[in-house]
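Q: I have 287 residues here and want to know how they pack in 3D. Can you give me a structure?
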Amino acid sequence: MTYKASRADWFVVSGEAADKRFYTRIAAGAGPKGPELRGYTLTYPASAADFERISIAIANSFEPFPGAPAVAEKPNPAEPPLPPPAPPQARFSATGLIVAPGRMVSVLPEACTEPATGKQKLKILTSDPSSGLTLFDLANARGAGFALADKGPESGAPLVVVGYAAGKDAAALGVAAGQVLLRPAVESKPAALRALAPLQENAGGNVVFDRNGQLLGLIGRPPQARRLVAGIVPEASYPVISAGDLVRFLQGAGVTPAALPGSERPLTAGDIVAANKGALVAITCVR
């Protein structure tokens, strides 16, 4: 078993057996005749690396109990006036990374007020308006450190993106496999690091790792709208704030993350999630 996650109404298990890999997702919910279990198991050759990205894309877009379509009602001329719009509510907006004791960094969307994690309001220590990088004071947070890539990745290199995504009742931790894209330098603009991966909406702050578990950077401000193709989140190119830019931002605020060694062997996506999930936090904003 390489990865497992369980919530009140669903669970996920993935693993390897001999030369096969498998991914199982089961959810509980209300069906037309009462409570039901719905899910699937995907099995594929361990040597087929592309299938891992496909299985993650399917899992990210899997809706076992889609809502029933609304039934149009006949207009009533005597209907009362519409109620005023609901006030803004706290919604999942980004993933935070604990970088040192009491310190967390993230990439916030432009329209974000009252950032919080759970019921705890977050205090902003400093931020970079152009990139959205924001450093928070997070009481009782313990930073275990992480491995930083010692050199820039090559275009086409495999990567793993780990972060939270909005769920039915609460944000849930997810993982996506992808590859590195390097946009070449043009005139006065330096070369830019990007990630090609199937990411959910509000992916800002998702952490990008190489296959040895070394941190490559954070997903920057992505497009606001999530695009679905046949119900599946497709791969798209996302901006990445490189590890070097992240470290310079933190050092400018007096924070030096603890450096850990990367793995000498390639890791599975489940290994990378297990090693880093304790440092990841779901952030909400009033929007």
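Q: Anything worth noting?
A: The chain has a mean pLDDT of 84. The chain has three helices and 17 strands.
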